[in-house]
Design a protein that fits this description.
Layout: E1 8-11, H1 15-26, E2 31-34, H2 38-46, E3 54-56, H3 60-65, E4 72-75, H4 81-90, E5 99-102, H5 108-120, E6 124-131, H6 133-139, E7 142-147, H7 152-162, E8 165-166, E9 172-173, E10 179-180, H8 183-212, H9 217-227, H10 235-243, H11 268-279, H12 284-296, H13 299-306, H14 317-321, H15 324-357, H16 363-369, H17 381-390, H18 401-424, H19 429-442, H20 448-459, H21 476-479
Parallel strand pairs: 1-2, 1-4, 2-3, 4-5, 5-6, 7-10
Antiparallel strand pairs: 6-7, 8-9
């Protein structure tokens, strides 16, 4: 095996690693590949990589020797201890200026720690969020790199060449430097959290169209196809449309109707929700979406409950829905307004995290990174980018003219849909959470004055007043009206 002939290295040849390596090679680069199980590497080199510019490396030492300096090597392995173990293996083999890239679904705090540790070794570290699944990895993902700032210039030509492209001329890469240390993986986590919210909102729209409006799968296909030509255009609307058209090749009916209603999760939505609580920001959509997946997992209990617990009479659906076309439009409005609130919450959390960790994030660029290649790619991300370009310190997307006007326009339909769902006993937790967030955010006065009074009563937590400056405590028990004996 020739030494130092490769421009890029890939450690880990599961589906994502294979596809990303093939993507890099297709852009004119020679790629070294290594896998802990040597047979996996050999099978790849003899199969999908045959005849292409790949160098298969049986050992980690051979892998490092095959890379040109500064070495650029990417790990796509299971997040956690495996990443630390590989870094430990690489340390004695690398030289100053070499770049270790973690492209896994890594918890941002680990990337914060690893960036510091790797820099102390005299090396550079890049924690890069990768979104788009198998197809995105092969044809053009969304890439969210962060870490050692010195890693960006050597990586930029490769990363921007393999990333998804958007824009009028399809020449704007969905890849830009995000920020220091764990910023890239944090932005990827927020992407995934918004994805959780988007998916739950779409599922609630589906439930309403199916159970309340009585739409068939063929009719659902037509509705989603129409929505995909509107401001709701997105990858998730597109694939939902497609799902409604797929019939069971082994029997009658549609596949979607035979899929067990138990949703899985890998944990990134939970991370975002937990971190929102730590930061004190109301990311209610992702939290609601996580809980919705949790209750879906209680399938056996739900089956038992369905036979014991009663609810409204669904025969009233026709009366409550009214005109079918008008109701479909109301559901569309509810979906769009709720989606806006979900993205607004995601960017508020990014702003809070940036302040907490001293990351100088460009929020318009974050929206651009999600414009193509990733799961939440959607038409209105361009408008988010424009909003932040116009007002870099925009507190909340709801303050931007476009989104404010869109939500106001959708309000009547949004409220009608939630009322109909409530009267029919159809759960729409994400639609409801989004509307509650909107209503809470627009209220000048909330009932938290009573809550803070309660806290002061039982715990002397003090309070501030609306009519004077300072911090106050009241002896509520002494001053209260005496209850009747």
């Amino acid at each position: 095996m020739s030494e130092a002939t490769c421009d890029f290295g890939m450690i880990g040849l599961a589906v994502m690693g294979e596809n990303l390596a093939l993507n890099v090679e297709s852009r004119g680069y020679t790629v070294a590949v290594y896998n802990r199980t040597q047979s996996v590497m050999e099978e790849f080199v003899a199969g999908r990589a045959a005849g292409k510019k790949f160098v298969g490396c049986p050992t980690i030492e051979d892998f490092v020797k095959a890379l040109k300096r500064p070495r650029k090597l990417m790990m796509l392995v299971k997040a956690g201890p495996a990443v630390d173990a590989i870094i430990k293996q690489l340390q004695p083999l690398l030289e100053p200026g070499d770049i270790i890239i973690d492209g896994g679904n890594t918890y941002y705090h680990d990337t914060e720690r690893r960036t510091k540790e790797v820099e102390e070794m005299g090396l550079l570290f890049c924690g890069c969020g990768v979104s788009g699944g198998e197809e995105g990895a092969l044809k053009g993902p969304s890439l969210m790199p962060g870490g050692s700032i010195g890693s960006w210039e050597p990586l930029k030509p490769i990363f921007q060449s393999i990333a998804a492209k958007v824009g009028p001329n399809n020449d704007i890469p969905c890849c830009e430097w995000v920020g220091p240390r764990g910023a890239g993986h944090y932005v990827k986590m927020v992407h995934n959290g918004i994805e959780y919210g988007d998916m739950q909102l779409i599922c609630e729209a589906y439930l309403l169209l199916k159970q309340a409006a009585g739409l068939s799968n063929d009719e659902m296909y037509d509705v989603f196809d129409k929505w995909n030509d509107s401001e709701l255009q997105s990858y998730l609307i597109e694939i939902s449309r497609d799902i409604f058209s797929v019939k069971d090749p082994e029997g009658s009916g549609y596949i979607v109707d035979k899929v067990l209603d138990v949703a899985g999760a890998k944990g990134t939505g939970k991370w975002m929700s937990q971190l929102a609580l730590d930061l004190g920001v109301p990311s209610t959509l992702v939290t609601t979406a996580v809980f919705a997946r949790g209750i879906s997992a209680l399938k056996e209990q739900r089956v038992r409950a369905s036979k014991i617990l009663t609810g409204p009479d669904m025969s009233k659906a026709t009366q409550l829905v009214g005109g079918k076309e008008e109701f479909i439009e109301a559901v569309r409005q509810a979906l769009y307004a709720s989606k806006i609130c979900s993205y607004a919450q995601g960017f508020v959390q990014l702003q809070a995290a940036a302040k907490e960790h001293q990351w100088d994030l460009n929020y318009g660029n974050c929206a651009l990174l999600w414009r193509g290649g990733c799961i939440i790619r959607a038409q209105f991300l361009d408008i988010i980018k424009e909003a932040f370009e116009k007002s870099p310190n925009l507190e909340n997307l709801l303050f931007a003219d476009y989104f404010r006007d869109a939500v106001v326009k959708a309000q009547a339909g949004w409220r009608k849909v939630i009322c109909v769902a409530t009267e029919l006993g159809l759960p729409v937790p994400a639609f409801s959470a989004a509307l509650s967030y909107y209503d809470s955010y627009r209220m000048e006065t909330l009932p938290a004055n009573l809550l803070q009074s309660q806290r002061d009563y039982f715990g002397a937590h003090t309070y501030q007043r609306t009519d004077k400056e300072g911090t106050f405590h009241t002896e509520w028990l002494d001053l209260r009206r005496q209850p009747k004996a």
